[in-house]
Amino acid sequence: MRKNNRKYHYFYKITNLINDHFYYGVHNTDNLDDGYMGSGTRLKRAYKKYGIENFKKEILKFFNTSKEAFEYEVEIVTEELKIDNNCYNIQGGGESFNTSGYVCVKDNIGNTFFVRTDDPRYINGELKHVGKGLFVAKDKNGNHYYISKEDPRFISGELVGCSKGIKYSEEHNKKLKEIIHIVHKPHKTCYVCNEFEIIKIKVTDKEAYLNQGYQEGKKYHKIIRQSTSDTHKKLNYQMGEKNSQYGTCWIHNDKENKKIKKEELENYINKGWIKGRKMKFN
Whole domain around residue 49: which residue ranges? Predict the structure, then answer.
């Protein structure tokens, strides 16, 4: 039975009564007393270590559909929450819903919502995955942050990648490669395209489509790109004052980069700053 046909759809929290570590999740069921206690990898390890009797489950909110429940989970289980040492969640909110043909995306002003994986706006790049362009970084004290490469703290070197400075033994790297090889599963589906469409098909059908003139992958045809470009021009998308970078510029002083308003540029130049952004400092 499909998740959305279940009688109950709810968002829950499981708390470790010994150390207050926690886990959030969504469950779809016909029986509120089915004994379900989450399926997270870290959570299951914690059950073995502390005993499941030392965990408490609370139903925080009910929803009419599984889609609504997963959309709410996206708001709560953020990437910032995942790197909290007290959190058992590994996946971001809504990721388990993605396997049903949907993906959580964000638009150009930061709104997040679900669309089907074959939605033209997702395929052509107008809507991007919520984690697109973001990664986990750390400061000198080991605190973690979820940022983009454009973050001034990353550009200045205040924050670095989590693996920066960590050296793994050859034995560790060998075991990691073995694990990756074991868990890797061949793709069951793939994309093919021609000058008119991009479609998702079974891998077993790929050769037949290639013989009909399709190309492998999601190569954006010039007609699609031109159509998107024309639409953006009509809407003045990211042009003039609508551009998020409008009225700003980068400066540096051979020690750090800084983004300022253009009307402040002359004052900074007089103080010895240089216009432009420097990617590496001595």
Answer: 1-76
